[in-house]
């Protein structure tokens, strides 16, 4: 089963999108083995890289996606974050790469940013989504896939139950350490109970999401 978002650990060859959050981690992506999928990302808790650096590594490695980038109120210079996000989304669209979105307390700004770039948006997945149902619906209208992790079950969004699977969605572990296999299947079991979907339906959905994220055409 495809895992829509995890981080590096003891295994570098799981069927998962391995996200990075700074350019310091990018070199590790070369250690990934099939069916692992690498994601080039950067968050503003460290200095953001130049967009040319991001473009260079993506062009050098055609299988890499973009994961994770976004807006985070905890980190400095939200205006600079927004500029970097817009540039990255444009790059993803031009190179035919999907983008995994990171968003903390900036849901409104995130939606405004996405609206401003329509229709030139790459395939998008909103990592670890726990926002409102209304925002989820608005994001879905923009073609965004909502990715649900463990924090979902502690949020008000969990009250939506079966409605969570009426819009494009994926499951993720956001794994960093521990027993990966146990974490993955515990997530599947918990979401199955919440949504009413069978394990087989959830596996099939996530595998279809992998195809959506990886089968895209460059526009330049």
Automatic annotation (TrEMBL):
For this protein, the record's SUPFAM superfamilies field holds:
Metallo-dependent hydrolases (SSF51556)
Pfam families on file: TatD_DNase
Q: Which domain of life is it from?
A: Bacteria
GO molecular function terms attached to this record = hydrolase activity, acting on ester bonds
Stored InterPro entries: Metal_Hydrolase (IPR032466), TatD-like (IPR001130)
UniProt-recorded name of the protein: Uncharacterized protein
Annotated organism of origin: Sphaerochaeta halotolerans
């Amino acid at each position: 089963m495809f895992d829509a978002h995890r981080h590096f650990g003891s295994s570098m060859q799981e069927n998962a999108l391995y996200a990075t959050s700074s350019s310091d981690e990018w070199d590790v992506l070369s250690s990934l083995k099939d069916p692992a999928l690498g994601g080039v990302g950067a968050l503003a808790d460290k200095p953001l890289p130049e967009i040319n650096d991001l473009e260079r590594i993506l062009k050098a490695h055609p299988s890499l996606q973009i994961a994770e980038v976004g807006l985070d109120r905890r980190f400095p210079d939200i205006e600079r974050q927004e500029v970097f996000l817009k540039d990255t989304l444009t790059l993803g669209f031009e190179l035919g790469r999907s983008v995994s979105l990171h968003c903390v307390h900036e849901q409104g700004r995130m939606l405004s940013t996405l609206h401003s770039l329509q229709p030139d948006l790459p395939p998008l997945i909103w990592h670890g989504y726990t926002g409102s149902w209304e925002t989820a619906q608005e994001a879905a209208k923009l073609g965004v896939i909502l990715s649900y992790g463990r924090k979902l079950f502690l949020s008000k969004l969990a009250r939506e139950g079966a409605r969570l699977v009426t819009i494009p969605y994926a499951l993720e572990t956001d794994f960093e350490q521990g027993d990966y296999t146990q974490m993955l299947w515990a997530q599947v079991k918990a979401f199955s109970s919440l949504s009413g979907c069978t394990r087989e339906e959830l596996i099939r959905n996530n595998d279809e999401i992998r195809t959506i994220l990886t089968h895209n055409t460059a526009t330049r």
